[in-house]
Request: fold
Amino acid sequence: MTKEILLTIAGLHLTDGENGNVEVVTAGDYYHRGGKHYILYDEVTEGMTGHTGNVIKVGENALEITKKGLINARLVVEKGKRHRTVYQTPFGDIELTLTGQDVEVTETENSISIRAEYVLEVNEQNLSECTIEMNVRPREAGSLSLIQS
Reply:
């Protein structure tokens, strides 16, 4: 896998039988160290000045997303475990709990696919069942055509 990558993130939230989908495609950087995958990218929040730097760390049965900047948080999805965090935004803090259901990583020579399933609680109230899927591919000229919809 190359250092310069394209990252596709697709999220699905099931709340009271209703679906909420989000999909983002962004450029980023990738490296592998100590048996873990690291993905770095910047996130811009529409209507706000500043950005949030994101570091995604993926290991066996665990996904960790660290956000620093406009938004600050450390989100951990680990199979069979609950993790609490404070999600700091410009509008105030939100207490989150993520209970990991499953984390799967599939690697090929030119891509890494990550799928994590978890239950999201906000202020100790069950909010939704969530799935996040990430796909990492080399960033090359015309590489946007590599992304699958």
Q: What stands out?
A: Confidence is low (pLDDT under 50) at residues 141-149. The chain has one domain: 4-141. The radius of gyration is 15 Å.
